[in-house]
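[audit] Reproducing an earlier prediction to check determinism. Same input, same settings, fresh worker. If the tokens differ from the archived copy the diff job will pick it up downstream; this log only records the rerun itself.
[audit] input (262 residues):
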Amino acid sequence: MISIGELRSLLERYGVRPSKSKGQNYLVDRRVAEREVEYLGISPGDRVLEVGPGFGILTEALLQRTQDVTAIELEPGAVRFLRDRYPQVNVLEGDFLEVDVPPFDLFLSNVPYSISSPLLFRLLDMDFKRAVIMVQREFAERRAASAGEKEYSRLSVNVHYRAECKLLENVPRSRFWPEPEVDSTVVLLTPRPAPFTLKDEKHFMRMVDVLFQQRRKKIGTVLKMKDMIKKEERKDLPYMDQRVEELSPEQIGELSDAIQRL
């Protein structure tokens, strides 16, 4: 464990005040950090990107395995610390959601809760081999949820379409400082070819966005309300009387293709 006193000393020295709105809760258990790096499965030649390294608990563990590390950090004080402590790391100051990201093979992040969804959507559009991320537990369960489950969401469909998602371990809130209000989960994402083919991927993604705005309504009702189909077209389409939350990603893909053929 990193002592709370040691972390507080670093925060004070570098002028950082943890922000609840930014989701700045720092992991203080080195054993958890070491396991995250182990899950990443670093091989010779792999380029590692770490997002939100803070005060370097994951960075320290990474450097035991590789020297090819790029870190993206938004907090100016943490950027100064990282450049002072780890001159061998390529530290980029900025927001992962906005900066130009260099090519990488492996992705590692204890994700600030405030950017979990947009970070994941951006990551899934990138080319990489594996990602290990720690997010709040409820968010992780939504990503891995299947049709019909309470946590099933737009995010679940996107993850299913682009990657294999495995929940690796739960991490109690007591392993962070300041202590958050929820527990966390470490997740492994491995990109893979889409499990089903589509006539138009953009149309499918747009339809997923539209449908999950009203996940408990019937499919036909939502599509008509959003002007994606005409009333008279309902009879030619499948699943019109099922609720959005009941359709698997494959069935949504089938429906997207059917609309494209009208």
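[audit] rerun output stored. Observation attached for the diff report: The domain at 201-261 is CATH 1.10.8 (Helicase, Ruva Protein; domain 3).
[audit] end
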